[in-house]
Structure formats: structure tokens, C-alpha cells
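Inverse folding, one chain.
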């Protein structure tokens, strides 16, 4: 269903099939496919080891975004009536969407006092988030489908989509406060576009894991579906809206006007995040190392691991 190929024209007369071949050779951390019926590109995390935002995954995402941006800008300018309309990001592993930042990498950079390395990592993240939430600066819609666990930066990535779809088994949370950090790659800015600031603060600071149903009731999740139905619902949503896309994009433009996302704000916050990381105590670094090991276990990161076990560690 999602592997059907179609020829789209890029600047210089290069078609998507040729770019697809290039991307598939270069990408180690993503699976990219085109769904002709939905006029959508599917971008799926494909984890090699830990299901987190490694530099490799971030670099692949940046590469794919550059290609998609070129496609949608060119087709929009040329008035292509069959242009790409949607991007959806998800994971090939239904049990885990993404467990957040590469904590093992952070520990190494913090230990070396490498401020620039931390800042570069964070900047790549906000560049990716900003491109997604602003839908590449053209009438276009980005979606996220979360079927499993989304923590920290994984939660932020889901929030950066214009439409967030979640299955009932999905779980979301920000564990960063447990080890003396805070989610600094857009969490607050993105949350307050969806819910009131006081509730956004609570979601970030209480370091508990929320169910998809809870977040749907709060307004964080846009579409809640039964387990196993996420991909079908995402494809159906996009197909249903093809003939209503002008209204969809017009409304998104209104949202952008009323609730604008400010890149300078995101950039200022990552500087605060870097400052905080470099001031972490030895105890907090040990807690971060604990969560890094949990990322390595992949599927061991559950609500109990994040809340109960981390609480025990904090009390030691």
C-alpha cells in the first residue's frame, strides 16, 4: 500500500523515483515511501540499535526534509494539481515511536565540556521540528502516527506535526526533569499551541507517563484510534481530505497566524538547555546514564520504568 511509486518533477527535471533510489542507498535510519492514493510521503524511523534520536537518525531526517521541501516548493510554485500534500512520520516498530535524545551521546559531550557539540545537536533538532510545524512554508500538512512509546524528544517530534494521531496503547512523557534536565527542543512552545500554558507546564514537570486517551481528552492528541488501526486511519484521513485540502490548509494558516511558532524562541531555549546540561551534578549524570541504559533495552522502557523506578533512584 505504501510502496507505490509515482513520478513527481523536481527543479532541474529530476523525478522522485531517481531521488528515491538515492535516498534508499544513503538512509540507514529511515524508511521512506510514497502512497499515491493519499498523495503522501511516509517517513518511518528504522532503528539500528537504541530507539532514540541518534546523530545518524537526525542526519537522515534532515536529508529527507530537504528533499521533501524541494519537491513541495517546486510543485506548489508550478501549480502541479497532483502535488504532494501530506507527510506522515512514524516508526517501523509499533512498540516504540522514539525514546528521545541520545542520552549516551549527551553524557560524553557533558563529560568533555563540549558546549558546541550539545548546541549543534539541539540545533539540528529544532531545525527539524520547525520545518515540520511550519509545514515547509507552503500549504501542506504534516502528520505523526504514534503506535507505541514516545518520550522526551520523541514526544516533541510528535508534537511538531500539524496532526497527531495515536493508538490507544501509545504512551507519552517527558522524563528529563528526573535527571535534572528539561525538554529543550520545542516541548513548551509546541504544547502551548495545543493546550493552556499551566497544563503544558504540568505535563513537562510531573515526569509521569500519559496514555493516549488522557492526552486526547486534554487536546494534545488530535485523533485517537484503536490499537492496530493507526495506519489505516492515517491513510483514510489523508484520502478523505484530498478534496477538502484548501480548507485544511487554510485553517492551518489561520492556526499559524493565531499561534505562531517563533524560531528565535526555539533557538534561545536550546541555549538554556545547553547551559543546564553542562551544570548537571554527578548524581544527575548517573540518573541520565540509567535512562541511557533503559534506551538500550528498547522495550523495557514502560510507565513503571519511567515513574516508579526513577523515583526510587532520585530518592537514593
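Residues assigned per position:
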Amino acid at each position: 500500500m505504501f510502496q507505490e511509486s509515482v513520478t513527481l518533477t523536481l527543479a532541474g527535471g529530476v523525478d522522485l523515483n531517481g531521488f528515491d533510489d538515492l535516498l534508499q542507498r544513503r538512509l540507514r535510519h529511515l524508511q521512506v515511501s510514497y502512497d499515491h492514493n493519499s498523495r503522501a510521503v511516509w517517513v518511518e524511523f528504522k532503528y539500528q540499535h537504541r530507539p532514540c534520536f541518534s546523530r545518524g537518525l537526525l542526519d537522515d531526517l534532515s536529508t529527507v526534509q530537504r528533499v521533501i521541501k524541494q519537491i513541495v516548493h517546486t510543485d506548489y510554485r508550478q501549480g502541479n494539481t497532483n502535488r504532494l500534500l501530506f507527510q506522515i512520520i512514524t516508526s517501523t516498530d509499533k512498540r516504540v515511536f522514539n525514546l528521545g535524545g541520545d542520552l549516551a551521546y549527551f553524557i560524553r559531550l557533558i563529560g568533555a565540556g563540549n558546549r558546541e557539540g550539545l548546541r549543534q545537536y539541539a540545533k539540528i533538532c529544532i531545525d527539524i521540528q520547525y520545518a515540520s510545524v511550519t509545514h515547509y512554508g507552503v500549504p501542506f500538512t504534516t502528520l505523526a502516527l504514534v503506535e507505541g512509546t514516545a518520550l522526551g524528544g520523541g514526544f516533541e517530534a510528535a508534537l511538531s506535526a500539524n496532526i497527531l494521531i495515536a493508538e490507544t496503547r501509545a504512551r507519552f512523557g517527558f522524563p528529563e526533569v528526573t535527571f535534572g534536565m528539561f525538554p529543550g527542543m520545542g516541548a513548551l512552545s509546541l504544547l502551548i499551541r495545543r493546550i493552556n500554558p499551566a497544563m503544558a507546564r504540568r505535563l513537562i514537570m510531573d515526569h509521569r507517563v500519559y496514555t493516549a486517551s488522557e492526552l486526547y481528552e486534554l487536546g494534545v492528541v488530535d485523533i485517537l484510534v484503536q490499537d492496530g488501526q493507526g495506519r489505516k486511519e492515517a491513510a483514510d484521513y489523508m484520502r478523505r481530505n484530498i478534496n477538502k485540502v484548501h480548507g485544511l490548509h487554510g485553517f492551518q494558516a489561520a492556526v499559524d497566524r493565531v499561534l505562531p511558532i517563533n524560531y528565535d524562541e526555539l533557538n534561545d531555549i536550546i541555549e538554556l538547555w545547553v547551559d543546564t546540561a553542562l551544570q548537571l551534578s554527578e548524581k544527575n549524570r548517573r540518573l541520565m546514564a540509567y535512562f541511557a541504559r533503559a534506551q538500550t533495552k528498547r522495550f523495557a522502557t514502560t510507565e513503571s520504568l519511567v515513574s516508579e523506578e526513577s523515583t526510587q533512584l532520585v530518592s537514593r
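The CA atoms of residues 48 and 160 lie 24 Å apart. The radius of gyration is 19 Å.
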